[in-house]
Design brief:
Layout: H1 14-24, H2 28-40, H3 44-64, H4 68-82, E1 88-89, E2 92-93, H5 94-109
Antiparallel strand pairs: 1-2
Length: 122
């Protein structure tokens, strides 16, 4: 089986950089908006990868708003989407991100548990 090559994404410029800055600043809705603009301009696997990041940002926004169920649902969808990607993809450590998402899923299953820090995208 031949693996599709992934185009590197430039996280230092444009909507990708703006979204990453917003995400890391805890402004998850804004991150989603920036990444959605970048997502519209992509095709193929890079578009699917960005969609997973958008889902993570929206999940964190839901969590901030007290919607644990919505956050859990979106994190599960993002995790399923990320399964198709290699450990490092599009300039992101996808394996570390998947591990972080699993920890979040576990925390959200426990109503009294304190959720870990937002999944770090690096």
């Amino acid at each position: 089986m031949t693996q599709t090559p992934f185009m590197p994404l430039d996280w230092q410029q444009s909507e990708l950089a703006a979204g990453l800055h917003c995400y890391r600043s805890g402004r998850f809705f804004d991150a989603h908006e920036h990444w959605e603009d970048a997502w519209r301009a992509r095709q193929g696997p890079e578009k699917r990868f960005l969609q997973a990041l958008i889902q993570i940002a929206v999940a964190m926004h839901h969590f901030q708003q007290g919607n644990r169920r919505g956050a859990a649902s979106l994190l599960a969808r993002a995790l399923r989407r990320l399964e198709e990607f290699p450990a490092a993809c599009c300039g992101i450590d996808a394996e570390q991100l998947r591990t972080s998402l699993l920890a979040w899923q576990e925390a959200l299953e426990q109503p009294a548990a304190v959720a870990p820090l937002p999944p770090f995208i690096r």
